[in-house]
Give the backbone structure.
Amino acid sequence: MAVFNIGDKQETAEPQIEVTVTSGDPIKVGTHKFQLIVVDDDGNESAPAIAEIVIRDLELPTAVLQIQPRSVEFGKSFTLLGENSSDVGSGSIKKYIWQRLD
């Protein structure tokens, strides 16, 4: 298991390595490239092989809707609040879509 920071090299004698991701330091959502160079017993290095992985956020955000005040007189305005909505994954809320249903 290894933590990969951009630009850091990890050397192993084994033909595989696990990329360790922690909740405190996750790899961001998106496409990321990794590179492998192998070295033979004479010290000769291969040309780099490059592969891409796509990190996806499959956790849905949570909408929390509050109304202030909870009751108003006829003809008076009120406020819809979505400020307690959240995205537990690595994302953040970027847009609020409001709709009256009745």
About this structure: The mean pLDDT is 90. The chain has two domains: 1-56, 58-102.
